[in-house]
Amino acid sequence: MIITLLNSEIKLTVRPDLGGRIDQLQDLQTGHQWLWHPEGYDESQTRTLALGASFDDNWTGGWDEIFPNDAAGMFQGRHLVDHGELWSQAWEVVETSNKSVKMVRSCQTVPVRVEKIILLDENKPEAKIEYLFQNESDETIPFLFKQHAAIAIREGDEILLPDCLIEPAVLEFSKIIGRQEKTRFPKALAADGREIEVQRTPPRSSQLQEFYYSSNLATGECGIRNSRSQSALLMNFDTTDFPYVWVFQSYGGWHNHYVLVLEPCTNIPYDLEIACRNGTSAQLLPHSAQRRTLTVRLQHF
């Protein structure tokens, strides 16, 4: 099932059958398509995945959401699956129009019902995405929730972050940052201690890869600026909803992909148990509801 949300400025393609994700986000002024898919991706094809399927083995780009966890494993007596369960399972469509869609999903790994509403502005190149999490149990549910927007990039694109601190998520994965230290974006440290800048995307031929967390955000915003289309994609959010932004980058170095993933997130690190111990995990109290919102907009310059 394919749902199209459209105004004069922007077109969103939504796939309830593919984890309820935004499959494509197109700027109608420039024709630029912002979301990445691997070569050979057929947008007309659906899929059926078992709960617990490997994320990396089945990733076909677009804009997924990750909940209630990232790393798979046992946690508080529950078996949590790879990258959570929202991305792999079909969502139920409750309401839809030419500018909005409302979907729901009752989770199997945790007793939580998730509602998602995408609302396109009447005229602006902007959409609001609102989530409602309903804990249907007597227990407090610690969780991780993050956006996982795969952005189609070109050499020289600029990563947009506010004043913040960055640090490598997994130093062994990093091929640009070389030290496990916090630095102020866009500066980082190479392995030999040299100061480097990390806001520009290198070419695919570099075969580089990088993955860092950003914290202490001055404002709730992140994005990417594409000089060729003279435009930028921006995400805006309240930092109480998403205190962190993860930035995953493959410049040919990981699975030969050339993609950048922007990930406003509730938690650091990716391990839910460690985040709980550190006090950097989101929590859903018994029989409570919690809303989190994000706005995505296009800007021309």
Summarize the structure in words:
An eight-stranded antiparallel β-sheet has the order 7-8-9-10-24-20-19-13, with no helix packed on it. A seven-stranded antiparallel β-sheet has the order 4-12-22-21-18-14-15, with no helix packed on it. The chain is mostly beta strands and 301 residues long. The two termini are 35 Å apart. The protein has helices spanning 55-58, 272-278; strands at 3-6, 10-15, 21-27, 63-66, 73-75, 78-80, 92-96, 100-106, 112-120, 126-135, 141-143, 146-152, 158-160, 165-168, 183-184, 187-189, 195-197, 208-215, 221-226, 231-237, 244-251, 258-265, 282-284, 289-300. It has two helices and 24 strands.
Q: What tags apply to this protein structure?
A:
seven-stranded antiparallel β-sheet; mainly beta; 301 residues; eight-stranded antiparallel β-sheet; globular; 45% strand
Write the layout of secondary structure elements.
Elements: E1 3-6, E2 10-15, E3 21-27, H1 55-58, E4 63-66, E5 73-75, E6 78-80, E7 92-96, E8 100-106, E9 112-120, E10 126-135, E11 141-143, E12 146-152, E13 158-160, E14 165-168, E15 183-184, E16 187-189, E17 195-197, E18 208-215, E19 221-226, E20 231-237, E21 244-251, E22 258-265, H2 272-278, E23 282-284, E24 289-300
Antiparallel strand pairs: 1-2, 2-3, 4-12, 5-6, 7-8, 8-9, 9-10, 10-24, 11-23, 12-22, 13-19, 14-15, 14-18, 16-17, 18-21, 19-20, 20-24, 21-22
